[in-house]
Each structure stands twice: as C-alpha cells, then as structure tokens.
Amino acid sequence: MREIVLDTETTGLNPEKGDRIVEIGCVELENHLPTGKTYHQYINPMRSISQEVVAVHGLTEEFLSDKPIFSEIADEFLAFVGENTPLVIHNAAFDMNFLNTELKACGKPILSENNVIDTLLIARKKFPGAKVNLDELCKKFNVDASRRTVHGALLDSELLADVYLELITNRELNFSSTKKNQQNQNVIQNLKKVSRETFPIREWKLDSTEEQAHTEFLAKVKNPIWGEQ
Asked: Are residues 130 and 91 in the same domain?
C-alpha cells in the first residue's frame, strides 16, 4: 500500500488572510516503510514573512525570492502525490487548508480529506493528556531528531514517517517511560534471582486402609467409563 507523509512550512497561520506555503516536503511509503522516494520544493510566496515566522523555519524572503511560485509546481506536486493516495500528516487540518487554498487559486483539483491520516489524532487517542507534538513524539519513540534545529518540511516528513510506524504498531509506550522502564528492569532482575532448583519426583503410596476404601468406592459405581474389570 502506497502512502505519502507530507508537511508544509508557511508564512503564517491563516491562508484566508493571505498566508502562503513556502515549502513542501513529502516522503513515499510502501507498506508503511519509506521507499527512498521524496518530493521537496521551496516556494516563493510573493509576500513578506515576519521575523517571528522566519525564526521557526529559517526561510527568508531573500532565500525564497528566486524560487518558483506555487502554480508553477502544482502539477509536479500532484503527480508525486497521486490520486487517492493516503496522506499522512501531523495536524492535517492545517496543511490541508493551505494546500487546497493554493490548489484552488491556480485552478487545480484539490486534495480529498477522506484520504488523510492525521497522526496528531492517533497520538492523542493513544496517549490522552500527553504532549504529542512532533518533537515530543520523537523523544518518546527514540527517533533521532538532532538535525531538527528549525522546522523543515522534508526533514519533518522523514521524522514523521518513523513516528507514524511507531504509532500504528502494537508497541506500547508510556510517556513516563524512563521510570516505567526502570521498574520493568527491576522486575526482570528480581526474576533472575529466583531459584530454578528442581526437586525429585515425589512418590505417593496408599496404605491398606486407603486401598480398601478405594476398592469399595469403585464397586458402587454403575456403568463405569473404564468398563468392567
């Protein structure tokens, strides 16, 4: 089964107020595992970007000034995603809103929300009340996120691919894992200390009184399943 793990970076939080996509990153999965095929594109948003947002993803207006606009990469993006391919996204509503706003603006078919797998919802259900942002999930699943000094669409998609695999397997993880793991190790060590000494087979012998009582009992049984002696 083919799936696409997807992430975007933007100029802000609201496409209805003019915010635009500045980066798209996609990772292809086959049977939940990365195939090595990716799609990555920086995009010129044709608008200003605040310093607060630049601090998040590190993409400046100057850097993006010579990059293609969204309409120029839309067909290539849609071709990579494919039709009816499940999209694995963390906080999918955010990315889908931006992508479909951009696709509508350039007259392209929008992405169906029916094909979306939202890992944020999966994580919230699996770990109710816990922090389930990508950084926290990477820590709890021991996914190496040391390269993530700033948000990046392709890198975040690669990390999310690993997190997604952990979320959909039956491996259990407690968010107080350090303490829990130590408790488990203590139990294991204590079990190792339990003696495994075996004892000789005990012989059981009936005395004459018990044998006589047994014989009298058998004589009273009608139609025994062991047949007549």
From this structure: yes
